[in-house]
Amino acid sequence: MFFKPVIDFITRYDKFILTAHETPDGDAIGSECALARVLKKMGKKVKIFNSDITPSKFRFIDAQKDIKILKNKSQLPKDIKDYVLFILDTNDTNNIGVVADLILPVVKKHFIIDHHDSDIPVFSGNLIQRSASSTAELLYQIFQDMNAEIDLSIANALYTAIVYDTGSFVYPKTTALTFKIAYEMVSLGVNPNNIFAHVYECNSISSVILESKVLSTLKLELNDHVAIQTMTKETILESGSKYEEADQIINIPLKAEAIRVSIFFKQDINGLLRCSLRSKGDIDVVEIARSFGGGGHKNAAGFKCREPGEIIRKKVLQKLEKYFKDEL
Ligand SMILES: [Mn+2]
Question: What is the pLDDT of residues 149-170, one digit of tens each?
Answer without folding.
Answer: 999 999 999 999 999 999 999 9
